[in-house]
């Protein structure tokens, strides 16, 4: 891929880089600057703009392009405004400069996750609206906070509010795969954080103390990590399985102890567990309880976020939404492989209230660098994404009334 000089930079790329320079990094995102940016875009594009404060300081911005038939449920294009933290010393360029190298790669936090998609939505709508197109279904674009830390002060609250109900969403697009141009996500992992706490006898570090917190915690960790290895082997043994089809487990935090020579009375281990949608959640919770009991007295666990039953969006050719989505991909020679998203996005909250949602981020020929150092995206890949969304929006917003909508 090659790139032209900055003097002839595509206006959409310039806009993208402008948005990337807004520092919405956790844990202290500048949401105000992002909202001001979106309000300005709405004004320039002739779209209505609504700001909904779902929690103090947490605002969902909604941009709306009305359709010709307000009786039809709308198309919802969702994206989040926050990005994950960075280690600046590990980056070759300032992660909020939006530096573009001579090859056309743009370096910035959010290039892949997911400010590119936000601007692709905006530019696809601008392109269609500017060309005089009108569609039966209204298109809403939601820009939500807090997704990178669970969405508890973002989409989780927004779907419960009357402002969300008023959108009358019939179908949703959200973020999806990054590395290939062939994947559409129709569900996602249930992703509770699990914290296991073990209590035991304390004492001096020079003694062989029985029934220590560390020994019992080690037993639970061994059980959970053995399960992890089993799932890993199951994935590796079956070339037809995708990551989203198995349950992933990672030990992410160990806590406890006060001094080198003191055996602690309590220790804890935190796990990031991404449960596959076909797993019986009650049975899995009982398995966690069993592992804790087997380790001994005084071993318990708690959820950082209690899981909910995941829902799946239909990807059958008979489904009008899927037919419209996959039809465009076929016309554009994009090979689709529907799969379960191995992580979790705000789509889980949308699906939970009964609205179908597909995760899709068109970023082919791109190294997967979300949440990583030197996150980047080539401008040509970004621009192609606008072309794809332009076609997708035309098709989705033109889906005739479904039998369930009459």
Q: In summary, what is this structure?
A:
The protein is α/β, with parallel strands linked by helices and 406 residues long. 31% of the residues lie in helices and 22% in strands. This is N-acyl-aliphatic-L-amino acid amidohydrolase.
Description:
The chain has two domains: 280 residues, Aminopeptidase; 111 residues, 2-Layer Sandwich (Alpha-Beta Plaits). It has a six-stranded mixed sheet with strand order 1-2-6-3-7-16. Strands 11-13-9-14 form a four-stranded antiparallel sheet, with helices on one face. Strands 4-5-17 form a three-stranded antiparallel sheet. It contains ten helices and 17 strands. β1 and β2 form a beta hairpin. The chain has 406 residues and is α/β, with parallel strands linked by helices.
